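Re: your question from the hallway

Yes, I did run it. Sequences:
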Amino acid sequence: DTEVTQTPKHLVMGMTNKKSLKCEQHMGHRAMYWYKQKAKKPPELMFVYSYEKLSINESVPSRFSPECPNSSLLNLHLHALQPEDSALYLCASSHAPTDSSYEQYFGPGTRLTVT
Amino acid sequence: GQNIDQPTEMTATEGAIVQINCTYQTSGFNGLFWYQQHAGEAPTFLSYNVLDGLEEKGRFSSFLSRSKGYSYLLLKELQMKDSASYLCAVRDDGGFKTIFGAGTRLFVKA
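Structure:
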């Protein structure tokens, strides 16, 4: 199984809502990532979890809150978002850098619209 | 600073060969990746180079020169389905952080 799944596929939320994005992988990867991608732009790294611990936070505003409940799951909790946060949110996973295989496997993404 | 440059767009003909170049200047280097991304879809892994030289995988080949900060992706026997964005990405010394270039949009015409 080389699949990363994300739910929901699409999400429309108001600026006062609280919602969560979910990501799951069963490849035994111990590194998981959240990226944000705007149209015609490359993915921008937001967070990295390694062995269920947050190892990188790219100065992301606190209205985005990541959580890694176990080695297969990654959540992104959203609260009080702004319209400019509308984007495609991609989850990815990979083996830890000490392993030989580094490539990241991406999920299909959640298309988020903030109204 | 971190800088990855690749052409914005390229057009090629079905059945032809196309080379997409990437130059990078990053504070650390722990490998270079190429990903393919179709519009509205997630990136998919194509190749990984950490040592100088050419890696071949079917119709796709990738080359790396670390001393020149340069890589290219070579696509042979182009097919219409190869129309996509191709992202060059560099992994930093720590290993977790991957910096993506802006991507090259390839249009394959009949």
